[in-house]
Design goal:
single chain, 35% helix
Amino acid sequence: QLIPLIGFISVGLGSAVLYLLRLALYSPDVSWDRKNNPEPWNKLSPTDQYKFLAVSTDYKSLKKDRPSF
């Protein structure tokens, strides 16, 4: 009777680990290389989708509304 419980817990832990890996590798807020790219969020274009789920946002039609540094 513990086999389903162990299965659900392992699926939950596995999905949490995969989500944390996704955040660490693809999030613009994380900088692994401080010398060459200290501020990676400044190099994003307005058409880059960095959110996990975008319900009604069309990223291809967005325009740049901030200055280039």
